[in-house]
Design brief:
By secondary structure, the protein is an all-beta fold. It is 2% helix and 47% strand. The longest helix is centred in the last third of the chain and has 6 residues. The two termini are 25 Å apart.
Length: 310
């Protein structure tokens, strides 16, 4: 995912990142970042070449999910919602998600990011029924930051994730007790009343994009879960819905016999913006880790433009 900074540069965020074996800080990190401007890209690392968002002392790492930027006094304040992730060899995918965290960066105009801190929301909890807030964010002109969360009922055969909506002022993002949650009728202050605005059956992926354009709201995701093959755009008149699924916009064709994976569809509404369409990216990888280590170029995002509903 990426965000446009005041000085015209873009901050680009990645999750799991493979690097050269002799790279300072390790050949594999849970997150990495770049600053990109015309003709130049600068790789950002933490102290000693480690992650920009450092692992916790117990080894729990952070995957960026969504990001917003606000400008203040010659600098950009960057708020990143991240998943807390633990390695789990017993899990089919090799990891479990334990919750949401808020990461803050300050970036001076023309300068380099400074990490201001990380706040974990709630205790570690591997349940997929728990709402993962921050799966998407979008700032509105009325001063609200709309924060979307996903959950899965953990029922047999239900691979999609339900979508939920909350909103907060920028200053309150670090304190979910000050957020407002859509309960299906109104905005309230109780997170446990958050309504489902897209159901899990035929639902979205755990991480997705939700954005507003010309007074209409769009949710972009793979249909029916993280490893779904179909990219779908849901449309709504307001951030809190009601959302209607449109016909499939793109099929992500994979070679299952080769262990090919295509996942993590993210929309980039302000990247090469054109009326009636949006640029999306998806990650392409493999179940064969040795293959990815041998040729990391096989493990990178792809970009494509899809149409938005008329």
């Amino acid at each position: 995912m990426e965000a446009l900074l005041t000085d015209g540069r873009r901050l680009v965020l990645f999750g799991d990142t493979l690097r050269a074996e002799d790279y300072p800080g390790g050949a594999f990190v849970r997150n990495s970042m770049m600053l990109v401007e015309p003709g130049e890209a600068c790789v950002l690392t933490g102290p000693g070449g480690a992650e920009v968002i450092p692992d916790r002392s117990d080894g729990i790492g952070y995957w960026p999910m969504s990001v917003i930027v606000t400008s203040r006094g010659g600098r950009d304040d960057v708020a990143i919602m991240a998943q807390r992730v633990a390695a789990s060899p017993s899990d089919d995918l090799g990891f479990i998600v334990l919750g949401t965290s808020l990461v803050r960066l300050h970036i001076p105009v023309g300068g380099v990011p400074v990490l201001r801190g990380t706040v974990d929301f709630g205790p570690d909890d591997p349940s997929r029924e728990r709402v993962t807030w921050g799966a998407a964010m979008w700032p509105s002109e009325d001063g609200w930051v709309h924060v979307f969360g996903t959950s899965n009922p953990e029922g047999t055969g239900v691979f999609g994730w339900a979508l939920h909506a909350a909103r907060a002022r920028v200053a309150d993002l670090a304190d979910p007790s000050r957020w407002q949650y859509w309960d299906g009728m109104r905005w309230g202050d109780q997170s446990e009343t958050a309504a489902t605005i897209i159901p899990a059956e035929g639902g979205v992926a755990q991480v997705l994009s939700v954005f507003e354009r010309d007074g209409r709201w769009f949710a972009v995701s793979t249909l029916d879960g993280d490893l779904g093959d179909s990219v779908v755009v849901w449309e709504a008149p307001d951030a809190n819905g009601p959302y209607t699924a449109n016909p499939v916009s793109l099929e992500l064709v994979t070679d299952e016999s080769a262990g090919e994976l295509k996942y993590l569809v993210i929309a980039h509404p302000d990247l090469f913006e054109q009326s009636g369409s949006v640029v999306i990216s998806y990650s392409q990888g493999s179940t064969d880790l040795d293959e990815l280590v041998t040729d990391p170029l096989n493990y990178r995002p792809r970009f494509v433009r899809i149409s938005l509903p008329d």
